[in-house]
Design brief:
Blueprint (H helix, E strand, L loop, with lengths): L13 E4 L11 H10 L1 E9 L5 H8 L24 E9 L2 E9 L13 H19 L14 E6 L8 H10 L5 E5 L7 H17 L15 H12 L3 E2 L6 E3 L5 E7 L2 E4 L8 H11 L1 H23 L3 H9 L2 H75 L1 H10 L1
Bound molecules: guanosine-5'-triphosphate (GTP).
Protein name: Septin-type G domain-containing protein
Pfam families: Septin
InterPro entries: G_SEPTIN_dom, P-loop_NTPase, Septin
Length: 412
């Protein structure tokens, strides 16, 4: 194992045979066959406050003593700390499949009154790695590019149970455009289940409020149900509540497990009922290993590359970029949208006008009909009236004539 802060330095590699199970050998067979020959490659960075268990977590994740134990030599002594960015390479073999792993440990922060500058060396390290890759891409012979870019950044959050600290927000805000952020709640054995659930919710809402983007594992629709459910379970557990421990301890029922022993029992690292360590490991080296690499290459590196080339005055790229200026595109979209709305409004008005006209015509028609009917009834009534008047006159005439009454009397 070799420490080196320079990303482009080729450190000698130590082969390690591990005894525990990591999981990368379970990647889908197709990818596996292709990759068995070359092995997989992953570069993970750990960032967070001092003493949150970053180095321990790396050792736990890969079940290997990648970092020497950082416990103080005697209880009264200070705990040895990571004081510089350290890059360590190891080749881990599992079921004949190799994982070339680079771990980048960063000095913990939080011991300084002014923490603001501490983020810059980390960001610089990430960008230097992009630089190293870009300069390889510009070579005439581009075969066998060495990818030292950071594929995942595990960000350690202190298990306070309160809101995210300002320093964490600042750090993540600086890093999220350059790296796949995977937030974890460190030392989750110090919180109970309810506290963890509340803290997770709070962290997610703080991240959203501050516009911090964390790694979102893609869902593949053509995956079988089991894989989809597994991926969903992992996604729901973010930010992972993790416990790190490399030592094996004995549980009350006599099992020997990796964990932390307390008077009240053992917190088991590999037990999903105790912490999310297994889910973090699964995401990193099994379910999303390729997704992390792909997103780094296609989105994060491309974004950095575009910005870099623009800053270097590559006007051709700039003009292409300008064509896709988001503000201009938004304005264009708005104009098209408004034109569509105006057209829609005009056609609605036309339909409305037509409907009113039809209704008016109908009303007029029924008015005419009503008027005609009214006139007809009135005429009939007038006629009946005239006939009645006529009859009345006849009767009155007949009654006033004496002949008529005699005749009637005689006949009767
Ligand atoms: P820096 O090098 O200062 O950045 O520290 P670090 O974040 O690398 O922490 P490190 O791994 O050195 O662990 C610090 C202390 O925390 C050690 O005493 C570990 O045994 C302890 N520790 C690590 N992980 C856990 C955990 O999950 N729970 C508990 N309770 N303690 C832990």
């Amino acid at each position: 194992v070799q420490d080196s802060s320079s990303p482009s330095a080729r450190a000698p590699i130590t082969r390690k045979k591990i005894h525990g199970h990591v999981g990368f050998s379970n990647l889908p067979n197709q990818i596996r066959r292709k990759s068995v020959k070359d092995g997989f490659q992953l570069t993970v960075m750990v960032v967070g406050e001092s003493g949150l268990g970053k180095s321990t977590m790396i050792n736990t994740l890969f079940d290997s003593p990648i970092y020497a134990p950082r416990e103080p030599l005697h209880p009264a002594a200070d705990r040895p700390k990571t004081i510089a960015i350290e890059s360590t390479q190891a080749v881990i073999e599992e079921n004949g499949v190799r994982l070339r792993l680079t771990v980048v440990d960063t000095p913990g922060f939080g011991d300084f009154v002014n923490n603001a500058p501490s983020c810059n060396p980390i960001l610089e390290n990430i960008e230097q790695r992009f630089d190293a890759y870009l300069s390889q891409e510009h070579r005439v012979r581009r075969a066998n590019l060495v990818d030292t870019r950071i594929h995942a950044c595990i960000y350690f959050i202190q298990p306070t149970g309160h809101a995210l600290k300002q320093i964490d927000i600042e750090f993540m805000r600086h890093l999220h455009h350059r790296v796949n952020l995977i937030p974890v709640i460190a030392k989750a054995d110090t919180m109970n289940d309810d506290e963890i659930a509340d803290f997770k919710e709070r962290i997610l809402s703080d991240l959203e409020f501050n516009g911090i983007q964390i790694f979102q594992a893609p869902m593949y629709e053509d995956d079988d149900e089991e894989s989809l459910a597994e991926a969903d379970e992992i996604a729901r557990a973010i930010p992972f509540a993790v416990v790190g421990a490399t030592q094996r301890v004995r549980t009350r029922d006599g099992r020997k497990v990796r964990g932390r022993a307390y008077p009240w029992g053992v917190v088991e690292v590999d037990n999903p009922a105790h912490c999310d360590f297994g889910k973090l490991r699964q995401m990193l080296v099994r379910t999303n290993l390729e997704d992390l690499r792909e997103y780094t290459n296609e989105v994060l590196f491309e974004r950095w590359r575009t910005e870099k080339l623009l800053a270097m005055g590559y006007t051709q790229d700039a003009s292409v970029f300008a064509e896709f200026d988001p503000a201009e595109r938004l304005q264009e979209d708005r104009i098209v949208h408004e034109a569509k709305l105006a057209k829609l409004e005009a056609s609605m008005k036309e339909v409305f006008r037509e409907k009113v006209e039809i209704q008016e015509r109908k009303l007029k028609q029924s008015e005419v009909e009503l008027y005609g009917r009214h006139k007809e009834i009135k005429d009939q009534l007038n006629k009946q009236w005239e006939e009645l008047v006529k009859k009345k006159a006849q009767l009155e005439g007949a009654m006033s004539s004496p002949d008529a009454s005699r005749k009637k009397t005689f006949r009767g």
